[in-house]
Structures
1.
Amino acid sequence: VKSFAREFAERVRSTAAALRALSAEVAGRPLAPGKWSRQQVVGHMIDSASNNHQRFVRAQLQDSMVFPAYDQDDWVRAQHYDAAGWTELVALWESFNLHVAHVMATADANALTRARSEHNLDTIASRTVPRSDPVTLEYFMRDYVDHFDHHVKQLDLR
Ligand code: NI
């Protein structure tokens, strides 16, 4: 998990540099008609970081991995990410994800690998797991990074 977290942190830094190179005008343009702009995708990724930061800490302090879900469109709409400052959003996106990487790298080894029978990854995970199959916190952390990578591709940075 430590080297996985280090590689994730490197991707966070390099992607943040590419995001900083975009103008606010380009960042605010919808990626397709009726779709999110890059700025709204970055906002959604901040919501993913904030929700999963809570989950990754709580999973080290309790056995259950049943966590609240969040509706991605409702959250993006409620926070008016389209009207937020691009520079500030990118800074928050970078530092929040670097902290998530730190939490991953320093997580308790037993908490990472212990099988959890009580979970709702059948609904909240990006790659879902049936409720009847046990899961680990390590699986859930890797699932977070899969979701992160999926959205970085969607950002179409070069
Ligand atoms: Ni998503």
2.
Amino acid sequence: MNAVAELQAIAGAKTVLGPDEAFTERHLRDFNIVAPESARPVAIAYPASTEEVSKILAYCNAHDITVVPQGGLTGMCGGAVPFRPALLMSMERMRTVEAVDADGATMTVQAGVTLDTVQKTADANNMLFPLDLGGRHAHIGGNASTNAGGNRVLRYGMMRDLILGVEAVLMDGTVISSMNRMIKNNTGYDLKHLFVGSEGTLGVITRLVLRLHPKPLSVSTALCALDSYDSAVKLLRHVKPRLGGQLSAFEVMWPEFYYTGTAALNRRPPMEPKPETGIYVLMEAMGGDPERDAEHFASVMELALEQGIVLDAVIAQSAKEARDLWSIRDCPGEFPAAGHFPQLGFDVSIPTGQIGEFAKQVHERLAAHWPKHKALYFGHIADGNLHVSIRLDENSGTEHEMDEVLYALVGEWKGSVSAEHGIGVHKRPYLHYSRSPAELALMRSIKSAMDPKGLLNPGKVI
Ligand SMILES: Cc1cc2nc3c(=O)[nH]c(=O)nc-3n(C[C@H](O)[C@H](O)[C@H](O)COP(=O)(O)OP(=O)(O)OC[C@H]3O[C@@H](n4cnc5c(N)ncnc54)[C@H](O)[C@@H]3O)c2cc1C
């Protein structure tokens, strides 16, 4: 019997498909990266339970078959993309919401449940699952494996902060069930953290206990024009204490990005661009008292205007107006329609107070090599996260050349080459700019202790 037939005998004919039956393009790419021709899959597995995951991994381990875990394939760094013949383990049949505990504010789910379903289930139970990002058909297991971030990290933390328990299967088939449901639990090493953010290199996540929050009853949204990045930092320091922890988003956009998200996409700018505007901030606060929260938010904004921190501001008067303001910030998905395509995206971290200077230096460094290059700058600056999108055209360098320039600069600033998208294959050559040799050696030791044959998602992260 060949491997596919043996795996079908172990896990079921519907659970494991041979490459000829199951071969679909969608398993051979994530949002950015396409598998090479040489990476034709050995098989595609669609397990429906932890037990099936365990049996398949144990077989692959015994027969030296490489395994690549796959979630919703919205990743940006190629972590779920095969680069050699492998069994692709898609988690899309593990999509059961097992329980919602309103008293403990938790939700227990299988790893293949989509982020969208988790958000809607929390909402239907009058609670909030605050992780939010553009790729909502991502799996919650994929969100955990990449330690996803998004727009509300400032208030609720990253995915790591929204997980209480994890169940994962090691490459040899061992099930590690750490399905803790309590906030306090100091019983030795917190093993869930090994699987969160390790991008499917240490185990396959099968189930999770998620942490829920109270559903907000009010949302206030404003778009502000300011003279400079330093004023954006001043505004952040102005609103944080005054909004008393209600601040849920603080998104910064440089003028070229604002132009792209408005005029270039035939959207009427809520504020006409003026020469004195050096930066735009989209701000959101969530609270529990609709009438008072809106008034208080407006008074905090008024004070910022009076004190000259803000040049101009628009406060959304309806949910539709708020969505319109967000559509400017969410425009990266529409870059092709705005002519900003193909593009090379960067997702890096630098301490909040230094991002303005850093962005200037990025511009200078890139301009020294490619004077006519076009780049857009934006970011979740309260989390220290800057995104840079460079249009790949005759005025830019190759992807590799620009990666080299930008990541070396991140290294000089002691920043992080990946703020929220992970390392995958794409950023692996640059990991050393953000991690010391001792840290890298410890990561390799952990990897070889948990997957001695190096069969689980090889060539990713470390
Ligand atoms: C339009 C758009 C906007 C985005 N915005 C953001 C953003 O604001 N912030 C952000 O952080 N990300 C963002 N992303 C990136 C992406 O959505 C996240 O990285 C997401 O968490 C990936 O989840 P996924 O299920 O699609 O994983 P995949 O792409 O399928 O896989 C990602 C990695 O996780 C591993 N993996 C997946 N499932 C499992 C599992 N069950 N067990 C073990 N390993 C697994 C894979 O092997 C791979 O290494 C965006 C993507 C898109 C398309």
